[in-house]
Amino acid sequence: MANKTLKTKQKSLASEIIGSIETKLSEAGAATKKMKKSIEKSADKLAKKLAKLMHKAEKKSAKPVKTAEKKAKKEEAKLKKNTAKAEKNARRAANAASSAAKTATESTPASTPASKATPARAKTTASKPAATRSSTSRTARKPAPAETTPEPETTNA
Question: Are 18 and 40 in contact (CB under 8 A)?
Fold first, then answer.
């Protein structure tokens, strides 16, 4: 189909070029058969080149439209994929929350209150040997009271 339209454009361009050149020649004087033949050949060549250039320009103008359509399709597919992932993650989180609540109610009796988060313990001093730290159990160990040392008084002399 593109070849037919290209050829028709070439023929119409050639006839327009021939017509305009012949009008200029008729103003200048009489044209011979050889001149008319060479004009037709040149016009055909020129029309062929012009038609190709016009066809390339049309292709280039149509190309951005196609790329925009491709981008839109990609974005749409990506959006669908992300929404499916979000729904799946929401279901997974809901299931995890419900199973966590179920296990929490099953593991703790109703008479005991829920356990509170334990505060972070302060690090012990480096002077204690490592063997004593690892040998003591966490439940048996109690944090040592913080020692306070009096600050030396400074006198202005």
Answer: yes
Give the whole-angstrom CA distance, residue 73 versus residue 31.
60
- Give the whole-angstrom CA distance, residue 29 versus residue 52: 33
pLDDT tens by residue, 6-40: 788 888 888 888 888 888 888 777 767 888 888 88
Question: CB under 8 Å to 9, separation ≥6 — which residues?
Answer: 47, 51, 54, 55
Estimate to the nearest angstrom the gap between the alpha carbon of 42 and the chain centroid.
52
CA distances to 3, 24, 36, 49, 75 from 16, in Å? 20, 13, 14, 14, 47
Using only C-alpha atoms, the chain has a radius of gyration, in whole angstroms, of 46
Would you tell me the crossing angle of helices 2-28 and 33-107 to the nearest 10 degrees?
Answer: 150
Q: Please state, in angstroms and rounded to a whole number, the distance separating the CA atoms of residues 48 and 12.
A: 10
Is the full-model pTM beyond 0.90? no
